[in-house]
Amino acid sequence: GLGDTMKFDNRVTQMLGVEYPIVQAPMGWIARSALASAVSNAGGLGIIETSSGELDAVKAEIKKMKLLTQKPFGVNIAQAFVKDPDIAQFVIDQGVTFVTTSAGSPTRYTDQLKRAGLTVFHVVPTLTAALKAVAAGVDGLIVEGGEGGGFKSPNEVASMVLLPLVRSKVDVPIIAAGGMVDGGTMAAAFALGAEGIQMGTRMVSALESPVHQNWKQAIVDAPETGTVFLNKFHSPALRALRTERTSRLEANAAENIMPEFGDAQALYFGGDMEAAIPLSGQVAGRIESIKPVADILHETRNEFFRILESLQRQYL
């Protein structure tokens, strides 16, 4: 159909060297070579995480990427979670060309990364953070709405509000994160000024995602009200699936939950949904099946262009 012949062409596809301006979120322990190479091979941009703090493992995963894909991929530097001051040089030394920086100041690594020839996008949850990142010289922004999963700003702003606000004040390309799950949300993000989207929860649920089947099934089963927003009075806050554990933490809002995060490995790979906090966005409520990454990307592309065509037919 129409979708098969239509091509994306904007600043994000050009800067990243990808067919689809769709980026996979850099989720700790999950965003490793199996998932990231599937995304890159399907025409999107896979990203390797550093938020697990396991830099030796990350280095091995980046090496694996070069065996698993010939396509571009990126690395995320999650500043709050990586205590190594040499992390930027570490990433540069891996021969990566695209980096997202998050959970810290955009002034910290942007110059160093750009001097080494890398493209740098900084993750921002507010307009103030976006303006600071642009002033620091970033190439683009990942604008992250509060409905997204994972570690968040305690002051959440939905993508529907944040995205057009940031777009109205900056000129750099924007990748929209938070609420992004299909061609409809992608078309909406583009209408609000984005030139790409980042998918997190959708990728956690993908066939090639390394997480345990129990977690994928929990995403499929979750209603749209099935997430909790935790740690609002501390930082970072986070959005996760509602479980017995996370409901208990939600009710006890005064304490900082980070020491209570739990045994990530037992949840992520052992499938014990109460062992730790299963990070997830509100779009868990819209995900109805576990699909290969390539199907997710192709269906998103086709739906995006189908919606554009039907809007044009109806209104223009």
Description:
This protein has 316 residues and is α/β, with parallel strands linked by helices. Helix content is 39%, strand content 15%. The protein contains 14 helices and eleven strands. The chain has an eight-stranded parallel β-sheet with strand order 1-9-8-6-5-4-3-2. A three-stranded antiparallel β-sheet has the order 7-11-10, with helices on one face. Helix 3 runs parallel beside helix 4 and helix 9 packs across helix 14. The mean pLDDT is 96.
Keywords:
316 residues, alpha/beta, eight-stranded parallel beta sheet, three-stranded antiparallel beta sheet, 14 helices
Mean pLDDT: 96
What percent of residues are in strands? Answer: 15-25%
Provide the low-confidence segments as ranges: none
* Main sheet makeup: 8 strands, parallel
Distance between the terminal alpha carbons, to the nearest Å? 21 Å
Strand order of the largest sheet: 1-9-8-6-5-4-3-2
**With helices defined by DSSP (H or I, 4 residues minimum), what is the helix count?**
14
Q: Count the strands? A: 11
Shape: globular
Helix percentage: 25-40%
- Derived structural class: alpha/beta
Give the oligomer, counting copies of the same chain as homo and different chains as hetero: single chain
Q: Secondary-structure element order, as H and E?
A: HHEHEHEHEHEHEEHEHEHHEEHHH
Radius of gyration: 18 Å
Provide a short characterization of the protein structure.
The chain has 316 residues and is α/β, with parallel strands linked by helices. The chain has helices at residues 2-5, 11-16, 33-41, 55-68, 87-93, 110-115, 127-135, 159-169, 183-191, 201-204, 213-221, 244-251, 264-268, 293-315, and strands spanning 22-24, 46-48, 73-78, 98-102, 119-124, 140-144, 150-152, 174-177, 196-199, 227-230, 237-241.
